[in-house]
Amino acid sequence: MSNALIVLEDGMVLPCRSVGAPGTSLGEMVFTTGMNGYQEAVTDPSYLGQILTFSAPMIGNYGTGDRALESARVWPGAVIATRIGDSPGVAGPTGFRSWLAAQGVVAVEDADTRRLVRHLRDNGAMRGGVSTELGAEELLALVREHPHLDGRDLSVEAAGERRSLGDDGPTIVAVDCGMKQGILNGLAGSGMRVEVVPAGTTADEILALGPDGVFISNGPGDPAACVPVIDALSGVLGKVPVFGICLGHQLLSHALGLRTEKLPFGHRGANHPVQRAEDGVVEITVQNHGYAVVADSLPDGVEVTRTSLFDGSVEGIAAPELLAASVQYHPEARPGPHDATYLFRAFRDRVAA
Predict the structure, then answer these.
(1) Does pLDDT of 1 surpass 70?
(2) Catalytic entry in 119, 246, 267, 283
């Protein structure tokens, strides 16, 4: 029996059934094509301000546990699926539905996710709402009053506290804009000592830590609005090697004089092919982003190093003279293919040179 509603800002209404906490959630409606990694996805801070739809017909079929956490909380305002399992499994002893409910997350199933995903692909990302409390008209009114994601800097809200990881190797200052634990583990596991500072930390404060390199993480929101991080990057470029992932790639691009634009419906999944410019090799990558770097006019000294084979969008840039490089995808692959994990080691080699 339907006891919840999904509403999009263009008036589309879908009935569904609540299997999580009761309530109402608003945000940008997005979808992921990933077939596993559901707990990693919902604990990824990049989903702050969004409602996450899983396109796979069944998720939650191998349990939940602490080892799959990318942060300490759930970030999407609501979770939508066709079917959400609730059995224990290899990931842990708690079913996904029970875990979502215990986290206070609005979660629904028996939703026509195929129709919803096709609608978003045809019409682009838009605001939406999920509610167990409101009727369609009242929910639609709230959705249309909700702010767009464009123009919103969410990096400070998504950032964690100051912390350190790793004992040996070169020192990296990682600017946390909503960093996944898997990325932090990837840096430390490649032989680097990582000092994590939150978004908003200035260039002088970063350089005062004496870093051998600077890393900029993934995160939510509109990259063009993350002015404090862009300014900080401008202040460290050319002084130490810099590496960015996902939002960090976009912020480095802005600091180098490029711009970003919103994609029609974003890239979210674990099967995105990316081609390297230097040798033509194709990497299958994990992605989660709604904006892309525009390279219609490259500043002097900046080159495109990787390109999406889905839509031709920029997936990597480099500024060799400034010792700076970035990629749009997630080399830590939690979960997903490991084609790009070498990038952490490559960064370690650069800062140790």
Answers:
(1) no
(2) 246
Beta bridge partners of 108: 18, 80
Per the CB < 8 A criterion, the answer to whether 75 and 207 are in contact is no
Clarify whether 246 is annotated catalytic.
Answer: yes
pTM score: 0.96
* pLDDT greater than 90 at residue 333: no
Residue 204 placed within a domain: yes
Range of the domain at 87: 4-145
Sign of the torsion formed by the C-alpha atoms of 75, 156, 292 and 233: negative
Task: Note if 226 is an active site residue.
Answer: no
* Nearest by Cα to 56 from 109, 125, 120: 109
Q: Are residues 177 and 124 in the same domain?
A: no
Own/partner long-range contacts of 312-319 (Cβ < 8 Å, ≥24 apart)? 313/263, 313/267, 314/253, 315/274, 315/285, 316/249, 316/274, 316/276, 316/277, 317/249, 317/252, 317/253, 317/256, 317/258, 317/293, 319/237, 319/256
Q: 202 and 342 in one domain?
A: yes
Q: Note whether 160 and 35 are same-domain residues.
A: no
Q: Please, what is the average pLDDT of the chain? A: 96
In one letter, which amino acid is 115?
R
Which pLDDT band, with edges at 50, 70 and 90, does 198 fall under?
very high
DSSP of 98-149, one letter per residue? HHHHHTT-EEEES--HHHHHHHHHHH--EEEEEESS--HHHHHHHHHHSPPS
For 17, residues 6+ apart whose C-beta sits below 8 A from its C-beta are 1, 2, 3, 4, 108, 109, 110
Is 119 known to be catalytic?
A: no
The rounded distance, in Å, linking the Cα atoms of 260 and 150 is 11
Which of the following is catalytic: 249, 267, 289, 330?
A: 330
Residues 83 and 178 both lie in one domain? no
Could you give the 3-state DSSP secondary structure of residue 189?
helix
Residue 183, SS3?
helix
Q: Are residues 198 and 128 in the same domain?
A: no
Domain match, 190 and 125 both: no
Give me the number of domains the chain comprises. 2
The confidence band for 2, taking pLDDT boundaries of 50, 70 and 90, is: confident
Parallel, antiparallel, or unpaired for β 303-308 and 259-276? antiparallel
DSSP single-letter state for residue 337: -
